[in-house]
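Q&A log
Question type: sequence-to-structure
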Amino acid sequence: LLIKAVVSTQSTGVVCRICKGPHWTKQCPYKDTLGVALDVQQEEANAVKPPVRAPGAYVPPSIRKGEPQDSQTRQRDENPTIRVSNLAEETSEKDLQDLFKPFGPVSRIYLAKDKNTGISKGFAYITYNRRESAETALQTLHRYRYGHLILQVEWAKPSGS
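Response status: OK
Response body:
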């Protein structure tokens, strides 16, 4: 009966995880002596292995290499941004580009729109590359008549407040 058990374990490919013998790990005669060493080796192996990612898999910005966290947000806060309010519902980003481009290079335009209808909510943020350009636009276009409304232009508050 014992010989049949040994033969059946060899034919099924049962291998002890502790001593690599042809028996079940539960029945290993060396589990008391080698078992502690095996646990230490497994802990070391798990601690050394970095997570494996498939090529082309999404990597969150917080763990990307070479980029500081929230670099885009930080850059946006440092650039001079003005807030334009009292815009008509029909206003488009192209209209704002045409209105603000003469004062200097515009790096970003955000026109707030309703998610369902796509109609303008009446305000926008214009980000310039240079503070002087933003200041000129602010002084020139504050209380400027645009369409049938008078624009309100002011410095944008930081996004954290």
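Response note: The two ends are 79 Å apart (CA to CA).
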